[in-house]
Amino acid sequence: MRTAYTLLLLALVTAPLARGDPLQAEFLLLPSAQAAGTFDREAPVTQVQDELLQADMLLTLQKGRFKFFAEYLVSDHESDLERLQLGWQLTNDTIIWVGRYHQPSSVWNHDHHHGQYLQTSVTRPDIDEWEDLGGILPQHFTGMLIESGHPAFGSWRLRTAIAGGIAPQLQADGLEPFDLLHPNFDRHTMGYQARASLHPSDFSESGFGLLVADDQLPWAGEPQTPAQVGLDHVDLRLIGAFGTYAGEKWNLQATLYHADARLHYTTSLVNDDFDVWYLQAERRLPHKLTAFGRWEDSFGTGDSQYLKLFTEFARIRYTAGLRWDFVSRQALTLQFENTHTLNGSFDAVRLQWSAAFF
Amino acid sequence: MRRAFLYLLLLSVSGLLHGGQKSVVLIARADSKVSDLDSLTVRKLFMGWPVLVNGGPLHAIRNRSDEQLDEVFLQQVVAMSQSAYERQILTGLNRQGSIRPEDVTSQERVLQELLTDPNAVSFAWLRDVAHNPKIRVIRVLWSE
A92 vs B40: CB contact, 8 Å cut-off? Predict the structure, then answer.
């Protein structure tokens, strides 16, 4: 609670600097409902939940150049403050945020965040999965995020985001981000991330870029598997490249991550590296239909010591589906998946309703 | 008699020209700090992007008092369909907590909002604001 109070105090102290400007507010509700089933199941456990009802709520308050931005997700499985950011609009193209943010080296999460309606597929690539759903990369940090844009090479645009903050901890059941509402100040370390991309114009979603991250993840739990015994912390470094083509009919997105993990045990050091990539293609069809497919694959994940901490990770996954935007700001999506984890494989089918209200 | 007829003819032609020409203009309060905005900045402003003038952010008001005015807005100002525009606005809200332009459905309310907020910027038919001393025309966005 101390961090939330600090953010609130900062807002109160700095608010007089925006005197004269009216307070503006914005609220966005992104509800969704999903039913799922698995079949041909060989894996002992999966990340698939039979049903999921959720409401993602976003609130913005702006006064002058100050901005307060919060995202709260409520579902029948969890409720969590996902983002809580206090921003200062430095220039037209640069904003500085402090608080809890989504780390910028995940392109998918930067584009879609938690809003189900805003992503075409029901699920996200497993490499970009949230920590509480078995994600293997830290996604929620508490610290500072600077997002910026600059003209480059004539009419092209360079977009950048750099961040540094308190990293999630490693626990027996996965990664646990710093909780702003119930903070625990034991054993916290830092992580740093950056993303830079070039786009043909200010408004274009098409573009390509690079990402890097250097995160230290401390162990903070009771070991329950051999891979967890004696683990002190993990230094996780990521480099990656990504590209997006957003056309009238086609939308393509690809990302490649190379992960270098150093697992520091009390008596030894284990070096590990692996690569994960995905390619998603979307084709808009008549009658407000969109067909999509995604191929997720990896190299070096089978014997990865780091991934032994996350055995439900999908090292290969094929996804295909159809989305129907049947009325304004509401969609139905049917999706099929074939997933290969480190412990087996399974197929799944999902049906989702998603919407956006503001 | 001939001279009077010529005068009448000139007056009618000039009236037709004046009445026939339609222009959509970007407007602000007469004492607004906004001196000029290029078309790219206007597009950013109405897509919910931050536009700072003299250190303060401008507030966009989307004038939806007239269907044809709305068409000009979509075609000439933001250059996209209503559904694509909504998608862009949603994306901005989700990614950066952007504040979307305020939708106002009556011309009187647009003028009221402009007069109460020195950082507000909107657009209107030139004929509706040309003789209003409290409103300043910043630039012509479109004319026919």
Answer: no
How far is the C-alpha of A234 from the C-alpha of A48, rounded, in Å? 27
- The answer to whether B17 contacts chain A (CB < 8 Å) is no
Query: Would the pLDDT of B9 be above 50?
Result: no
Domain of residue B92 covers: 22-143
What's the pLDDT at A85? 97
Which CATH number characterizes residue A174's domain? 2.40.160
Q: Please name the member of A24, A92, A147 whose beta carbon is closest to the beta carbon of B59.
A: A24
What CATH number does residue B50 fall under?
3.40.190.10
- What does the pLDDT look like over B112-130, one tens digit per residue? 999 999 999 999 999 999 9
Domain-located, residue B1: no
- Within a domain: residue B80? yes
Judged by CB atoms closer than 8 Å, whether chains meet at B100 and A64 is answered as no
Size of interface A-B (CB pairs under 8 A): 75
Q: For chain A, say whether B53 makes contact (Cβ under 8 Å).
A: no
Name the residue range of residue A137's domain: 32-53+122-141+148-355
| Structural domains of chain B, count | 1
Reply yes or no on whether the pLDDT at A94 is more than 70: yes
Q: Is B4 on the interface with A (CB under 8 A)?
A: no
CB A46 within 8 A of CB A351: no
- Say if CB B130 and CB B18 are below 8 A apart: no
Amino acid at B44: K
Q: Considering its fold, how many domains does chain A have in total? A: 1
Domain assignment present for B11:
no
pLDDT band of B72, cuts 50, 70, 90:
very high
pLDDT tens, position by position, B40-70: 999 999 999 999 999 899 999 999 999 999 9
Q: Which of A22, A25, A358 sits opposite B117 (nearest CB)?
A: A22
Asked whether the beta carbons of A233 and A218 are under 8 A apart, the reply is: yes
- Whether B8 is in a domain gets the answer no
A203: chain B residues, CB-CB within 8 Å? 43, 47, 88
Interval A36-62 mean pLDDT: 88
Pick from B129, B118, B135, B136: nearest CA to B69? B129
Q: Answer yes or no: is A86 within a domain.
A: no
B91 touches chain A (CB under 8 A): yes
* Per-residue pLDDT, A5: 54
Query: Smallest Cα–Cα separation from A38: which of A323, A332, A330, A314?
Result: A314
